[in-house]
Design a protein that fits this description.
By secondary structure, the protein is an alpha+beta fold. It is about 30% helix and about 25% strand. The protein contains 4 helices and 5 strands. The chain has a 5-stranded mixed sheet with strand order 2-1-3-4-5. The radius of gyration is 14 Å and the shape is globular. Bound molecules: tetrahydrodeoxyuridine (THU).
Length: about 130
């Protein structure tokens, strides 16, 4: 049992709620706050395509809008053999609110990989750049 099992399970459960009729690519994400609370999200697509929001950003916006600050891990779950990394826009948002946290990538078969945000997003533009 890993310390990330609960987070992965929350991401998996959120993935079941994905609204992905255009891509059929269902994604679940879950964010762990330092308070211990877990916030999950799924991708929410739109007929315009461009208004689609990724699972990671849904989870982040839920947490931030609930007043939560300070996060120590994020999990992303898809049904692919090659695990899915957050897209560029999500990396920017994860960096903004979570910084150099471990990103736990997993699939429905139970494959798990950990990668640090500083590896995924090595030269960020952030508050320290202003
Ligand atoms: N997607 C996510 O939700 N997170 C990612 O990290 C990659 C992409 C979604 C967006 C869209 O609904 C679908 O996956 C295909 O791009």
């Amino acid at each position: 049992m890993s310390e990330y099992d609960l987070l992965i399970a929350a991401a998996k459960q959120a993935r079941d709620n994905a609204h992905a009729p255009y891509s059929n690519f269902r994604v679940g994400a879950a964010l762990r706050a330092t308070s211990g609370r877990i916030f999950s999200g799924c991708n929410v697509e739109n007929a315009t395509y461009g208004l689609t929001v990724c699972a990671e950003r849904v989870a982040i916006f839920k947490a931030i809008s609930e007043g939560e600050r300070g996060f120590d891990a994020i999990a992303v779950v898809t049904d692919t053999d090659t695990l899915t990394s957050p897209c560029g826009a999500c990396r920017q948002l994860i960096w903004e609110f979570c910084g150099d946290v471990p990103v736990i990538l997993s699939n429905l078969k139970g494959k798990v990989e950990l990668i640090q945000m500083s590896t995924l997003f090595p030269k960020p533009f952030d508050a320290s750049s202003l």
